[in-house]
Specification:
By secondary structure, the protein is of the alpha/beta class. It is about 40% helix and about 15% strand. The protein has a single domain, classed as Rossmann fold (3-Layer(aba) Sandwich), CATH 3.40.50.720. The chain has seven helices and seven strands. The radius of gyration is 17 Å and the shape is globular. It binds nicotinamide-adenine-dinucleotide (NAD).
């Protein structure tokens, strides 16, 4: 897909390490010609992200942004705008990662856990879209990551699934409000992929094996497949698509039993 993204300037939010889905998306975009800026959460991931970017995607740059802080989001996009006159796209690949701290039962979710999961995983997309809009002078594209736990009950996913439902609804409202500015907003609903966000998910191995057994393609998916779908959505080829949730899950979501 060389050349598909030539000259396009894309902000990738949510790389923590090489397993991050955001990293696979960045690779698809980079090798298609995009220029990239990365935002990362905190000190814990800073060195890893800088090393990965320096080694594999020279000419890209990194900026810290904790999405629970409005000022961080404002500063990050303002800093990016000092280097780029406009922004063409944002990859939002962020979720609350400490799922092992979540209770066994959804009924036992505390107010604080509910709020934090929604703040990081859902509201951050709205805050990002509000901020980046002013820099998307020539239209643009926003892609976020969701999971089927928004549509169906999955073991132990509960509050994450509820937050993802809010995220998917948000892309529709954002798509409608930003469409007149030719800014498209879509989500990719990815099948299970082993990353740091899944480390604390109980029964994750079981989830993987069920998908491999029952999905129409009879296999799981990898982050590169998500990366290529994000590339399609960000590129001119996806120009007619907005407010959509695209499943990249080997077809698992269509199966009834
Ligand atoms: P990951 O841990 O690599 O990515 C999650 C990212 O969120 C990390 O980079 C982390 O630093 C960032 N983050 C968390 N809190 C933040 C904050 N306050 N400020 C800024 N960044 C913050 O795991 P991943 O699997 O690549 O997850 C990326 C996205 O994909 C998430 O939205 C996740 O829900 C979604 N997703 C993952 C899977 C899967 O099976 N791995 C499936 C479907 C959807």
């Amino acid at each position: 897909m060389k050349g598909l993204m030539d000259g396009k300037k894309i902000v990738v939010m949510g790389v923590a390490n090489r397993q991050s889905i955001a990293w696979a998306i960045a690779k698809s975009l980079y090798f298609a010609g995009a220029e990239l800026a990365f935002t990362y959460q905190n000190d814990a991931v800073e060195q890893t992200v800088y090393q990965m970017v320096d080694h594999e995607m020279p000419n890209s740059f990194c900026i810290r942004c904790d999405v629970t802080k409005d000022q961080d989001i404002t500063n990050a996009f303002s800093d990016i705008n000092k280097r780029w006159s406009q922004i063409d796209g944002v990859i939002h690949s962020i979720a609350y990662a400490k799922t092992e701290n979540l209770p066994f039962s959804y009924l036992d979710t505390t107010r604080a856990q509910f709020a934090l999961t929604h703040d990081i995983g859902t509201y951050s997309l709205v805050a990002t879209a509000k901020e980046v809009k002013q820099y998307m002078l020539d239209g643009g594209t926003i892609v976020t990551l969701t999971h089927m736990g928004s549509e169906r009950v999955l073991p132990h996913y509960h509050v994450m699934g509820v937050a993802k439902a809010g995220l998917e609804s948000s892309i529709r409202y954002l798509a409608n409000e930003l469409g007149p500015a030719n800014i498209r907003v879509n989500a990719i609903s990815a099948g299970p992929i082993r990353t740091s966000v899944t480390e604390g998910v109980r029964d994750f191995d079981y989830m993987l094996s069920v998908v491999e057994e029952r999905a129409p393609l009879r296999r799981g998916i990898d982050a590169e497949e998500v990366g290529d779908t994000a590339l399609f959505l960000c590129s001119h080829m996806g120009r007619g698509i907005t407010g959509e949730v695209v499943h990249v899950d080997g077809g698992y979501n269509i199966i009834g039993m």
